[in-house]
Write a structure and sequence with these properties.
alpha/beta; binds 2-phosphoglycolic acid; eight-stranded parallel β-barrel; globular; 11 helices; 8 strands
Length: 259
């Protein structure tokens, strides 16, 4: 399949693996080693986000390679009496480059609000951590014709008070909740339409060029056999991959979808 480049000359493809609550330290080391080897000549921006308990071990393996280290969450406080939380300072100390914020599992299962997400994004940026900021509608919202409105509100609230100069550290990820872990992928056209809505919104909130230059990933059941059709869409610049990121044999072909 021929990949239509579109504005992807401007925006490098960014493929990220979210391991969620999977893998002990040994399994994490093994997968990280396989990925370093299998992706050494991949020119896309690459990131893997192991669970907190495996961060330092994976950091030692990806250090100096083309794979960024991600964390799956961060506290909205810097330090102090916050039982069970992990601060951005601790993440930096573990060698983390990027943090995923606002994932729908955090929003739905752990009650994260747009306001909390906004605070987390600001705090992460202030500690020099890049951010993958997730948005997406539920099935009920999509069926009720609210997808655009929900995503628009999430983007606006999440970026509230964030300066244009700080956007360099932020990647958006559109992840329709109904497509996560369900095997149901949004059609490339449906996904691209929401990506286009986000792009126009960004161009309105900030300078018009921001809408063209920000990287927007798609997430939700991305697999080796559907990645090319998604990446060929003009407004889709990468993938946030859950289930298929847990094995080298599925993540490597996704990350190297055009080679
Ligand atoms: P999935 O998860 O690829 O398993 O659907 C995506 C995500 O939650 O980021």
């Amino acid at each position: 399949m021929i990949i239509i480049k579109g504005d992807h000359d401007l925006r490098n493809y960014y493929i990220a693996g979210n391991w969620k609550m999977h893998k002990n330290r040994e399994e994490a080391r093994e997968l990280a080693r396989e990925l370093v080897k299998g992706l050494e000549n991949c020119g896309h921006t690459l990131m893997i986000a192991p669970p907190f308990t495996a961060l330092t071990e994976v950091a030692a393996i990806v250090k100096g390679t083309n794979i960024l280290l991600g964390a799956q969450n961060v506290s909205l406080a810097e330090q102090g009496a916050h039982t069970g939380e992990i601060s951005p300072i601790m993440l930096k100390d573990c060698g983390v480059d990027v943090v995923i914020i606002g994932h729908s599992e955090r929003r739905i299962l752990y009650g994260e609000t747009d306001d909390m997400i906004n605070k987390k994004i600001k705090l992460a940026l202030s500690h020099d951590l890049d951010v993958v900021f997730c948005v997406g509608e539920t099935l009920d919202q999509r069926e009720g014709g609210e997808a655009e409105g929900v995503v628009t509100a999430q983007v606006k609230k999440g970026l509230n008070g964030i300066d244009e100069s700080d956007l360099r550290g932020i990647t958006l990820a559109y992840e329709p909740v109904w497509a996560i872990g369900t095997g149901k992928t949004a059609t490339p056209e449906d996904a691209d339409a929401i990506h286009g809505v986000i792009r126009s919104l960004l161009g309105g909130l900030y300078a018009a060029s921001i809408g063209d230059s920000m990287v927007i990933q798609y997430g939700g059941s991305v697999k080796p056999d559907n990645v090319q059709s998604l990446m060929s869409m003009e407004n889709i610049d990468g993938a946030l991959v859950g289930g298929a990121s847990l094995k080298a044999e599925t993540f490597i072909p996704i990350a190297k979808f055009d080679s």
